[in-house]
Amino acid sequence: MQKVYANATEALDGLLEDGMLIAAGGFGLCGIPELLLEAIKEAGTKDLTFASNNAGVDDFGIGILLQTKQVKKMMSSYVGENAEFMRQYLSGELELEFNPQGTLAERMRAGGAGIPGFYTQTGVGTVIAEGKDVKSWNGKDYILEEGIFADLAIVKAWKADETGNAIFRKTARNFNVPAATCGKVCVLEVEEIVPVGSLDPDAIHLPGIYVHRIVQGEHEKRIEQRTTRPREEA
């Protein structure tokens, strides 16, 4: 089965539809599928729901889709660093399903494992628990969280072979693995495609069985918050 596509637009061909739920990997601007997000913008697909730790910044990451009003709802943990995200939410233009970070990661992982829901103590006694089923074990309350089953997963890796076995570099691993597994279809963008058999099996983070399409490209690797200090005299 040929999985490698020439560009992000071709890799998404036939997969996009209005109103779909997309799971996106990345954390801030680290490890985000920037080429695929740009292709979604160009496609004009609208009324989208994104399950993603955050929405990047105003002009990068999912933020570019907020600018074009293509996103209807965010399922996220962090709403900072993106003024347009906050503006749309506070004005009622954007729905937000707020998730504690670990809960969001586990909801994606659960969906990928075929688990419809799980109980957790995180969020008990807060607004996170409102409207959710509560059960008690050993004198402690737990709330029910549902697994995320996305229509499409878009993720970014450092290296992958032609079958989709992928390695994520350092912190870019973040939400990419659980996001990849919870989509009905997973499209992987990668910095480098290597021959089958050249990756150490013990180093693979995402097995190719989860990956349906692959695209290689050049990435900007923008720094979200650049922090510097004067270099000390030699």
Topology:
Elements lengths: L3 E2 L2 H4 L9 E4 L9 H10 L4 E4 L11 H5 L3 E6 L6 H8 L4 E4 L2 H12 L4 E4 L13 E4 L2 E7 L3 E12 L4 E2 L8 H6 L1 E12 L18 E4 L18
Parallel strand pairs: 1-12, 2-3, 2-9, 3-4, 4-5, 9-11, 11-12
Antiparallel strand pairs: 6-8, 7-8, 9-10
How would you explain this protein's 3D organization?
The chain has 234 residues and is α/β, with parallel strands linked by helices. It contains 6 helices and 12 strands. The protein has helices spanning 8-11, 34-43, 63-67, 83-90, 101-112, 176-181; strands at 4-5, 21-24, 48-51, 71-76, 95-98, 117-120, 134-137, 140-146, 150-161, 166-167, 183-194, 213-216. Strands 1, 2, 3, 4, 5, 9, 10, 11 and 12 form a 9-stranded mixed sheet that branches. β7 and β8 (140-146) form a beta hairpin. The longest helix has 12 residues, at 101-112. It is globular. The termini are far apart. The model has no long low-confidence stretch (mean pLDDT 94).
Labels describing this entry:
234 residues; alpha/beta; nine-stranded mixed sheet; three-stranded antiparallel sheet; 6 helices; 12 strands; globular
Give a brief outline of the structure.
The protein is α/β, with parallel strands linked by helices. The protein is 19% helix and 28% strand. It has helices at residues 8-11, 34-43, 63-67, 83-90, 101-112, 176-181; strands spanning 4-5, 21-24, 48-51, 71-76, 95-98, 117-120, 134-137, 140-146, 150-161, 166-167, 183-194, 213-216.
Oligomer: single chain
Q: Count the strands?
A: 12
Largest sheet, strands/sense/barrel: 9 strands, mixed
Strand content: 25-35%
Question: Shape from CA axes?
Answer: globular
Low-pLDDT regions: none
Order of helices and strands: EHEHEHEHEHEEEEEHEE
Distance between the termini: 56 Å
Question: Considering DSSP H and I runs of 4 or more, what fraction of the residues is helical?
Answer: 10-25%
Helix count, DSSP H or I runs of 4 or more residues: 6
Mean pLDDT across the residues is 94
- Summing up helix and strand content along with how strands pair, one would put the structural category as alpha/beta
**Rg on CA atoms, Å:** 18 Å
